[in-house]
Amino acid sequence: MTTAAATRSKTYDLVYIAVFAVVMAVCSWISIPAQVPFTLQTFGVFMAVGVLGGKRGTMAVLVYVLLGAVGVPVFAGFSGGIGALLGNSGGYIIGFIFSALVMWAFEKFLGRKPVVQIISMIVGLIVCYAFGTAWFMVAYTRSTGAVGLMAVLGWCVFPFIIPDLIKIALAYVLSGKVRKYAR
Fold first, then answer.
1. CB-based burial of residue 2 (10 Å sphere; 0-12 exposed, 13-18 middle, 19+ buried)?
2. How many angstroms separate the CA atoms of 77 and 4, rounded?
3. Are the beta carbons of 82 and 66 closer than 8 angstroms?
4. Does the N-terminal or the C-terminal CB of the chain have fewer CB atoms within 10 Å?
5. Is the pLDDT of residue 137 over 90?
6. How would residue 79 be classed by pLDDT, with cut points 50, 70 and 90?
7. 53: left (phi over 0), alpha (psi -120 to 50) or beta
8. Which residues, 6+ apart, have CB-to-CB distance to 27 below 8 Å?
9. What band does 27 get if pLDDT is binned at 50, 70 and 90?
10. How far apart are CA 78 and CA 117, in angstroms?
């Protein structure tokens, strides 16, 4: 690859990463308030990795989380800052990074076959739920008092399972269509 082509390729990579960080921010602003708000953030994460692949998709998720960490209002409710990450639902946001890493690992070791992509999204979602739930329990206990696992699952996981599975299905279908334009 020539130097000009390599530079162009890196530039495209940076643009795609930035575009999907913005997509995730817009998806987070579409929100139904709850203990942990119903948003399209997970859809944005699945789309980023689905369209860009593991490496660039994970970078887009990392950029999104870092933008929020420094105070850019990219999280649900137009929030941002380290306080949003340290709060009750911050673990789910940080969990997006682990979700993307899991999807990247699946891609690296098992390829991009349709069944692998769908399973990687489901496992990525489970990892996000696990990390976010553990974080929620610690943050909630610290600020409010002890809380049981079943209570937290009832607030933060069970109501989201069906909507998140629908988001996975939509992200899988749409990422396949968009991917051919983002090469």
1. exposed
2. 42
3. no
4. C
5. yes
6. very high
7. left
8. 39, 40, 41, 43, 44
9. very high
10. 30
CA distances from 109 to 55, 112, 113, 116, 151 (A): 13, 9, 11, 10, 36
What is the SS3 string spanning the chain? CCHHHHHHHHHHHHHHHHHHHHHHHHHHHCEECCCCCEECHHHHHHHHHHHHHHHHHHHHHHHHHHHHHCCCCCEHHHECCHHHHHCCCHHHHHHHHHHHHHHHHHHHHHCCCHHHHHHHHHHHHHHHHHHHHHHHHHHHHHHCCCCCHHHHHHHHCHHHHHHHHHHHHHHHHHHHHHHCCCC
Residue 3 binned pLDDT confidence (cut-offs 50, 70, 90): confident
- Alpha-carbon span 58 to 46, nearest angstrom: 10
Report the Cα–Cα distance between both ends of the chain, in Å, rounded. Answer: 16
For residue 103, give the amino acid letter.
Answer: M
Beta-bridged to residue 32, according to DSSP, are 38
pLDDT for residue 182 = 74
Could you tell me the pTM of the whole model?
Answer: 0.93
What value, to the nearest 5°, has the Cα angle with vertex 159 and ends 156 and 162? 125
